[in-house]
Amino acid sequence: MENNFDVAIFDMDGTLLDSMRYWRFTTLEFLLAHRLPVRNEDLVRMLDTSSRKLLFEIAEREGVDIGSREAVVSELEGYMNRHYLQDTSLKDQDLPTFLQKLKDCGIRMCVATGSPREFARNGLKRQGILDYFEFVTDNYERGDGVSKDQPEYFVHLAARLGVAPERCVVFEDALYAMESAKAAGCRVLAIEDGTARLQREAILQTADGYAANYAELIERMDSAKFL
Questions:
Q1: Do 173 and 191 touch, CB atoms closer than 8 A?
Q2: If both were cysteines, with which of 26, 68, 131, 217 could 76 make a disulfide (CB 3.0 to 4.6 Å apart)?
Q3: What is the pLDDT of residues 141-169, one digit of tens each?
Q4: What is the model's pTM?
């Protein structure tokens, strides 16, 4: 492969791990834990809707107080840590081969996730791929409120890695993060995930490349047509 980038920045949920469905269904875990109604219309929406967004919509409809956003997010993240430790799997079986090929080409790699970085490490370590990455960062590490939905996040990340944003490729499944990465000057390779199916057209218009699985990317690497 002809290296036309220096750094690969990977999202985790839905990109490295097949974990977005667990995130979506933390809505159900929360409702059951708090003895709140589970309605058919909410079950239908769960797979395609952010757990945080849906929970507060349900709380407003039911006229109940579920606490602060911070408390709710912390509880959902706790559910997810259990899934990282026990349930989640690799995005697909070809991912380790792809990561090794990047490493062999001299591409540096890190993980930028919306999940707490210590929980993310649990999931990556359990699947045997943590050591491919120089570091794992999240929305909390900087402590200034800048997160993956802002271009500054990726500008700062490129600076931390000592490269220009234009030399970074961001591997991502979520449209909002793709848009931020593009605005920062990074290139984006979209990884298909079922929870983002309603945004697929917008993702195709935003990303520089799109792959349904890592076997596709391995084939592109071998043919020197990565992006």
A1: yes
A2: 26
A3: 988 889 999 999 999 999 999 999 999 99
A4: 0.94
